[in-house]
Amino acid sequence: MQPVPTSVSVSPSKIPVARPAVDADYPASADDASCRARESLRPLDPLPAPGRMPAGSSMAEIVARGRIVVGVDQNTQYFAARNHHEKDRIEGFDIDMAEAVGLALFGEPGHVAYRVITQAQRIPLLQNGEVDLVVDTMTITCDRKRQVSFSGNYYDDGQRVLVPWDSPVAGIGDLRGKRVCTVRGTTSIATLRDKGTLPYAVDNWTDCLVALQRAEVDAVSTTGALLAGLRAQDGDTKIVGPRFTDEPHGMAVRLDRADFVRFLNGTLTRMLADGTWERLARTWLSPAFDGEPQKPETAYVG
């Protein structure tokens, strides 16, 4: 695990405020019904040796620079959260996935530079070249695939609901007309609108937890693993109801980096085959999924 450079500072005295979502908080558009979100480019096989990337490739450019810049969160328990004892370090499943990519590129640790970002910054920072890669619980959607390129699915999840322990809510169907918190720019916020709730928007998932604790909202909704991370921080909450979405998650790169997508898919395929993915999933995701996480599935094409 490498020290995380400060890129987004949050004042300890800042009190997050959940507010009713506005048009700018939502993703650009709905998916095309004919789209296949789980499809990604065929993995690079064989993978080049670390430090010996094909000349002229996106990977060679990164190796020549000596570091890969990865956009991550710092508020998602199990995926990317600050270590309680070492505040300059972030740890979790997404961080270890990013480290695996760094090792595949360079052959040794110490070459991953982390940029802490919000969910809404993921696509813009890729598009303007400020980060090379985003590993940040990012659901693969067809609308997003028109803006950035995704690796294959590296973990599966679906949207659920978190409420106070004494809430009578049993699932999303009980929240029509109710205030439900989620993060702006995510797929969750559009789903909540379509389900007839009153979406409230914040920048970070922990802000939603604060809003729930202060009774500014009636519930929080996002993927089940992220909700489990919030539940772990507040034992007076519970997750209710079954999943009501199907959400594959991918690592994202700039749209014109198809060679890097193939490299990521080759790295992911190797991790799934040699047990690395299972080891990382057991370490980080077993508590989030209340058991053994299932291996993700991807259809590779092209």
TrEMBL record:
Keywords: Signal, Transport. It holds the Pfam family SBP_bac_3. Residues 67-288 form the Solute-binding protein family 3/N-terminal domain. InterPro entries: Bact_solute-bind_prot3, Solute-binding_3/MltF_N. Gene3D superfamilies: Periplasmic binding protein-like II. Belongs to the bacterial solute-binding protein 3 family. This is Glutamate ABC transporter substrate-binding protein. It comes from Yinghuangia aomiensis.
